[in-house]
Amino acid sequence: MAPKSPEEEHPRKAFGWAARDTSAVLAPFNFSRRNNGEKDVTIKILYCGICHSDLHVTKNELGIPTQYPVVPGHEVVGVVTEVGSGVTKFKVGDKAGIGPTASSCRSCESCLDGNETYCPESRLVFNSTDRDGTKTYGGFSDAIVVDEHFALRFPERLPLDGGAPLLCAGVTVYSPMKYFGLHRPGLRLGVVGLGGLGHIAVKFAKAFGVHVTVVSTSPGKKREAIDRLGADSFLVSRDPDQMKAAKGTMDGIIDTVSGAHPLGPLIDLLRTNGKLVMLGATDKPLSCPLFLYSGGGRWWWGVRPVG
């Protein structure tokens, strides 16, 4: 019999909140983390954001088999309590954060380009397999161990609780805005869906100097969009007159809706060469007549960049 690893001999005890079936009900859960390795940091978790993806996974909704019991949470922030002998980015007491990605091969084209998230061998911070073959558990827990490469130094001036959602929701909207050039001052951007990703998309866009229109099925969200978040205008997507009046007025649209919904009316809102970026995760098919693209130079990008 092969000798046991240090992690097997002396597992690090941990506590979290786990779902044990598709009801997604969280209950106390005791488990083990690997010991802190040479390039690892151990982080005492102080806050963890709640992302819609956590709910999707705990309910086993996305077609990615959920390994129960599952401890969700992938917007993790806290304080470093232990560092390995080879760690150079952190010292004990530093503020640190972890997004969804916990490891990757570090040698493929994506990794070498700084796109570890797209590595074929990337592993998630929860509901995946750690480098030692053990199961990964997320940030709804008291502590976490991760290679320093996948942890971020957290700015001292940024509150941990308010900054946690930037580690997934934040980068999910920031990345396509930058990649598709939707951050330039003066552009007209539609944000579909208000709540979670939509909130952060509005705040980033306004910080960039973009003219923002929130598109929602809920008229009651108008005050939230304009008075609290600073959006410039508001469209009720179920109102055909409002949608018709806004036809062809937007340079781009960030669609954050996590469910099946009609895309044709959104594409009608785009100017020539406008871009529709899909960020909401759903396992339901989306349909759109292809003729809507012809003659208008509109682009539909079905992407969901993850932190």
Automatic annotation (TrEMBL):
It comes from the Eukaryota. Pfam families: ADH_N, ADH_zinc_N. Its cofactor is Zn(2+). GO terms for molecular function: oxidoreductase activity, acting on the CH-OH group of donors, NAD or NADP as acceptor; zinc ion binding. GO terms for biological process: lignin biosynthetic process. Residues 18-298 form the Enoyl reductase (ER) domain. Belongs to the zinc-containing alcohol dehydrogenase family. This is Enoyl reductase (ER) domain-containing protein. It comes from Aristolochia fimbriata (White veined hardy Dutchman's pipe vine).
